[in-house]
Write a structure and sequence with these properties.
single chain; mainly alpha; two-stranded antiparallel ribbon; 2 strands; globular; IS110 family transposase
Protein backbone atom coordinates (compact mmCIF):
# COMPACT_ATOMS: atom_id res chain seq x y z
CA UNK A 1 0.00 0.00 0.00
CA UNK A 2 2.90 2.34 0.79
CA UNK A 3 4.44 1.70 -2.61
CA UNK A 4 1.16 2.44 -4.38
CA UNK A 5 0.85 5.73 -2.50
CA UNK A 6 4.42 6.69 -3.36
CA UNK A 7 3.82 5.89 -7.05
CA UNK A 8 0.61 7.95 -7.04
CA UNK A 9 2.52 10.85 -5.48
CA UNK A 10 5.26 10.51 -8.11
CA UNK A 11 2.64 10.59 -10.88
CA UNK A 12 1.04 13.66 -9.34
CA UNK A 13 4.46 15.36 -9.09
CA UNK A 14 5.20 14.54 -12.76
CA UNK A 15 1.83 15.92 -13.87
CA UNK A 16 2.46 19.11 -11.87
CA UNK A 17 5.95 19.41 -13.36
CA UNK A 18 4.55 19.06 -16.89
CA UNK A 19 1.90 21.67 -16.19
CA UNK A 20 4.45 24.10 -14.70
CA UNK A 21 6.73 23.65 -17.70
CA UNK A 22 4.13 24.20 -20.43
CA UNK A 23 2.44 27.18 -18.75
CA UNK A 24 5.08 29.38 -20.39
CA UNK A 25 4.22 28.16 -23.91
CA UNK A 26 1.50 30.36 -25.48
CA UNK A 27 0.10 27.55 -27.64
CA UNK A 28 -0.66 25.56 -24.49
CA UNK A 29 -3.67 27.76 -23.73
CA UNK A 30 -5.00 27.18 -27.26
CA UNK A 31 -5.05 23.41 -26.80
CA UNK A 32 -6.30 23.32 -23.21
CA UNK A 33 -9.26 25.50 -24.23
CA UNK A 34 -10.65 22.43 -26.05
CA UNK A 35 -12.95 20.47 -23.72
CA UNK A 36 -11.37 17.09 -23.01
CA UNK A 37 -7.77 18.14 -23.66
CA UNK A 38 -5.90 18.35 -20.39
CA UNK A 39 -2.36 19.42 -19.55
CA UNK A 40 -0.76 16.06 -20.37
CA UNK A 41 -2.36 15.71 -23.82
CA UNK A 42 -1.66 19.37 -24.62
CA UNK A 43 1.98 19.07 -23.54
CA UNK A 44 2.43 15.85 -25.53
CA UNK A 45 0.90 17.35 -28.66
CA UNK A 46 3.01 20.49 -28.40
CA UNK A 47 6.18 18.51 -27.75
CA UNK A 48 5.64 16.36 -30.83
CA UNK A 49 4.49 19.18 -33.14
CA UNK A 50 7.18 21.69 -32.24
CA UNK A 51 6.58 24.76 -34.41
CA UNK A 52 3.35 24.48 -36.39
CA UNK A 53 4.91 26.55 -39.19
CA UNK A 54 7.04 23.50 -40.09
CA UNK A 55 3.94 22.04 -41.73
CA UNK A 56 2.39 23.74 -44.78
CA UNK A 57 -1.14 22.54 -43.98
CA UNK A 58 -3.20 20.20 -41.82
CA UNK A 59 -2.81 17.31 -44.28
CA UNK A 60 0.95 17.28 -43.84
CA UNK A 61 0.48 17.45 -40.06
CA UNK A 62 -1.76 14.37 -40.26
CA UNK A 63 0.75 12.64 -42.50
CA UNK A 64 3.49 13.39 -39.97
CA UNK A 65 1.37 11.58 -37.38
CA UNK A 66 0.72 8.66 -39.73
CA UNK A 67 -3.03 9.27 -39.89
CA UNK A 68 -3.37 8.54 -43.60
CA UNK A 69 -4.50 5.56 -45.63
CA UNK A 70 -2.76 4.37 -48.78
CA UNK A 71 -4.83 3.90 -51.93
CA UNK A 72 -4.92 0.41 -53.37
CA UNK A 73 -6.42 0.42 -56.83
CA UNK A 74 -6.19 -1.44 -60.06
CA UNK A 75 -8.18 -0.29 -63.05
CA UNK A 76 -11.66 0.59 -61.82
CA UNK A 77 -11.39 -1.37 -58.57
CA UNK A 78 -10.39 0.45 -55.42
CA UNK A 79 -9.90 -1.46 -52.17
CA UNK A 80 -12.00 -0.24 -49.25
CA UNK A 81 -10.36 -2.08 -46.37
CA UNK A 82 -6.88 -0.59 -46.36
CA UNK A 83 -4.72 -0.47 -43.23
CA UNK A 84 -3.51 2.78 -41.66
CA UNK A 85 -0.03 3.65 -42.95
CA UNK A 86 1.52 4.07 -39.48
CA UNK A 87 4.47 5.75 -41.15
CA UNK A 88 5.04 8.72 -38.94
CA UNK A 89 5.60 9.79 -35.38
CA UNK A 90 3.96 7.10 -33.25
CA UNK A 91 3.99 9.23 -30.11
CA UNK A 92 2.22 12.07 -31.90
CA UNK A 93 -0.31 9.58 -33.31
CA UNK A 94 -0.90 8.20 -29.79
CA UNK A 95 -1.52 11.68 -28.32
CA UNK A 96 -3.85 12.62 -31.18
CA UNK A 97 -5.93 9.47 -30.91
CA UNK A 98 -6.17 9.59 -27.13
CA UNK A 99 -7.00 13.31 -27.12
CA UNK A 100 -9.61 12.79 -29.86
CA UNK A 101 -11.18 10.00 -27.80
CA UNK A 102 -11.36 12.34 -24.81
CA UNK A 103 -12.76 15.20 -26.91
CA UNK A 104 -15.35 12.80 -28.33
CA UNK A 105 -16.71 12.32 -24.82
CA UNK A 106 -16.97 16.07 -24.19
CA UNK A 107 -18.10 17.61 -27.49
CA UNK A 108 -21.37 16.56 -29.16
CA UNK A 109 -20.01 17.45 -32.62
CA UNK A 110 -17.19 14.92 -32.29
CA UNK A 111 -19.47 12.35 -30.68
CA UNK A 112 -21.89 12.56 -33.63
CA UNK A 113 -19.00 12.32 -36.11
CA UNK A 114 -17.60 9.26 -34.29
CA UNK A 115 -21.03 7.60 -34.23
CA UNK A 116 -21.54 8.25 -37.95
CA UNK A 117 -18.16 6.78 -38.88
CA UNK A 118 -18.70 3.85 -36.52
CA UNK A 119 -21.92 2.92 -38.33
CA UNK A 120 -20.40 3.36 -41.81
CA UNK A 121 -17.63 0.83 -41.30
CA UNK A 122 -18.31 -2.92 -41.47
CA UNK A 123 -14.98 -4.05 -39.95
CA UNK A 124 -12.80 -2.64 -37.16
CA UNK A 125 -15.53 -0.15 -36.31
CA UNK A 126 -14.11 1.48 -33.17
CA UNK A 127 -10.54 1.66 -34.43
CA UNK A 128 -11.47 3.15 -37.77
CA UNK A 129 -14.00 5.59 -36.28
CA UNK A 130 -11.61 6.85 -33.60
CA UNK A 131 -8.80 7.33 -36.12
CA UNK A 132 -11.14 9.28 -38.42
CA UNK A 133 -12.18 11.35 -35.41
CA UNK A 134 -8.50 11.96 -34.66
CA UNK A 135 -8.06 13.06 -38.28
CA UNK A 136 -10.84 15.60 -37.77
CA UNK A 137 -9.20 16.65 -34.50
CA UNK A 138 -5.95 17.36 -36.43
CA UNK A 139 -7.80 20.01 -38.42
CA UNK A 140 -8.96 21.69 -35.21
CA UNK A 141 -5.49 21.58 -33.62
CA UNK A 142 -3.89 22.96 -36.78
CA UNK A 143 -6.36 25.84 -37.01
CA UNK A 144 -6.06 26.81 -33.35
CA UNK A 145 -2.26 26.72 -33.33
CA UNK A 146 -1.84 28.60 -36.63
CA UNK A 147 -4.25 31.37 -35.61
CA UNK A 148 -3.18 31.47 -31.94
CA UNK A 149 -6.80 31.38 -30.85
CA UNK A 150 -8.82 29.66 -28.14
CA UNK A 151 -11.46 27.06 -28.93
CA UNK A 152 -14.99 28.40 -29.25
CA UNK A 153 -17.91 26.01 -29.71
CA UNK A 154 -19.89 26.12 -32.97
CA UNK A 155 -22.90 28.46 -33.11
CA UNK A 156 -25.34 25.54 -33.10
CA UNK A 157 -24.07 24.55 -29.64
CA UNK A 158 -24.10 28.12 -28.32
CA UNK A 159 -27.69 28.77 -29.47
CA UNK A 160 -29.10 25.74 -27.64
Amino acid sequence: MREIRSLEKAIKDCDQGIEDLVQTVPEYQCLTSIPGVGPVYAAGLLAEIGQIQRFPDQASLAKYAGLTWPRHQSGRHEAEDTPLTKKGNRYFRYYLIEAANSVRRHLPEYQAFYRKKYQETPKHQHKRAIVLTARKFVRLVDTLLRNHQLYTPPRSVIEK
